[in-house]
Design brief:
heterodimer, A: about 200 residues, Arc Repressor Mutant, subunit A, 2 domains, about 0% strand, B: about 220 residues, alpha+beta, Jelly Rolls, 5 helices, elongated
């Protein structure tokens, strides 16, 4: 178990950052934006480098792209739907998808904007939100307790952006095993419980 | 078939959340989620998983220069129009498909496939997967067919049944190459589906087998 103080400092930090975002949204506060940049830019770069190790310029581009959206979309952020960390993750993911479809062998004419954005901006109805935050608080603790082979597979899929087939090739595991490890991991994290 | 058969499998939803799903498949998941609050809730938690994983990475600080360059641009930044969603509040067309369907379904250039079916291709994905709409007339049948790859289907209007059950608006189906199925639209109205196929469809009836060489050529 994580000591209580640590947990507290995590949520204090998040509250502080959420406050910065509010100041960006309502007052166009550049100092607050600077604090957001200092906290999130290293994480966004790390996220990019997890998929493309060594591609420092790609990582910088992603930071620029995501932080630009934070500046522009701060007003649209709805803290009831996702906490700020999760919102930043979805922005980083969306920017990465967009980058890939423009610049690589994954090129396609399908525009991802409407595939992801609206769904997450609106999300489920308000009556579901109360249960939401309770379920979410278990996820961080749960991740720490996952067996290594299960957290490895989540890392491949979420951070390295691997398809199940690519993960199966790299880990030399049958495709079915990859899928069932993903399922098992999510089950342990109680991500799939519909209340 | 398991009970979850009308929803994307959990690992598929996770891949969607992770952004590691081909966009053609992501279209199907997105169209389903718009109809399904259970999957929408799962998705929020899955996104949270991604966020927690991201926060466990060793931070990779950028150069001071990167920050300065961004700050210099801040004042000149303005919301670009690409974010402006075509607002069609009354439309029943899933938002993710409006990029291909400017008006309504009827206005699309439907092509006759058989007496019962019309289709219109919306686009192809990078992996060659074909994204199309299928329209089955009331009571019409889509023949018995199998696929060389997986087929993802979301019902957009109407309903159909096949060997494994009855599927209605918003339902999501995944059929792999081993599954043979014969969707039949209900008699009360026509059925419109979004279908993403990773390989050419194979019709398995005696007569329709003659169609296969043509379909394959069409796919290439």
């Amino acid at each position: 178990m994580q000591p209580m103080t640590d947990k507290r400092s995590n949520s204090d930090k998040l509250a502080l950052l959420s406050d910065c975002l509010a100041r960006v949204a309502h007052q166009r506060d550049k100092a607050a934006f600077g604090q957001l940049f200092d906290h999130y830019a290293p994480l966004i770069r790390a996220y990019s480098l997890a998929r493309d190790p060594g591609a420092s310029l790609v990582a910088d581009d992603l930071v620029q792209e995501v932080m630009t959206r934070v500046w522009l979309k701060a007003e649209k952020y709805n803290g009831k739907l996702a906490n700020l960390n999760t919102w930043i993750f979805t922005l980083a993911r969306n920017c990465r998808i967009d980058y890939l479809r423009r610049n690589s062998r994954y090129a396609t004419e399908i525009d991802p904007t409407d595939i992801f954005n609206d769904i997450e901006d609106e999300g489920p109805g308000p009556f579901q939100q109360a249960q939401q935050s309770r379920a979410e608080s278990n996820i961080r603790e749960g991740l720490k307790q996952l067996p290594p082979e299960q957290s490895e597979i989540l890392t491949k899929v979420y951070l390295e952006g691997k398809s199940h087939q690519q993960a199966s090739d790299e880990l030399q595991l049958p495709l079915g095993t990859v899928k069932s490890r993903v399922r098992l991991a999510l089950k342990k994290l109680e991500v799939l419980v519909v209340r | 078939m398991e009970k979850s058969a009308k929803h994307p499998q959990d690992e598929l939803l996770a891949a969607y959340s992770a952004g590691s799903l081909p966009l053609s498949q992501a279209l199907c998941v997105s169209a389903h989620i718009e109809h399904c609050s259970d999957c929408a809730r799962k998705l929020q938690r899955l996104n949270r998983v991604g966020s927690e994983l991201m926060h466990r990475l060793p931070p990779a600080p950028p150069s001071e220069d990167l920050k300065n360059r961004l700050f210099e641009r801040l004042d000149s930044l303005s919301e670009d129009d690409s974010e402006a969603v075509t607002s069609q509040p009354a439309s029943s067309i899933p938002r993710c498909l409006r990029q291909f369907i400017p008006g309504d379904y009827a206005a699309l250039p439907w092509r006759r496939v058989s007496g019962d079916i019309h289709s219109v291709e919306l686009c192809r994905d990078f992996n060659g997967a074909r994204v199309e709409l299928l329209k089955i007339k009331p009571g019409g049948s889509a023949y018995t067919h199998t696929h060389l790859g997986d087929e993802y289907t979301v019902i957009l209007e109407g309903a159909f049944s096949d060997e494994s059950g009855l599927y209605a608006e918003g339902d999501f189906l995944l059929r792999d190459h081993k599954d043979r199925h014969t969707p039949v639209a209900t008699r009360d109205r026509e059925c419109i589906c979004l279908a993403v196929t990773e390989g050419p469809v194979q019709f398995t009836g005696f007569f329709s087998r003659l169609l296969n060489p043509m379909l394959r050529r069409d796919f290439a």
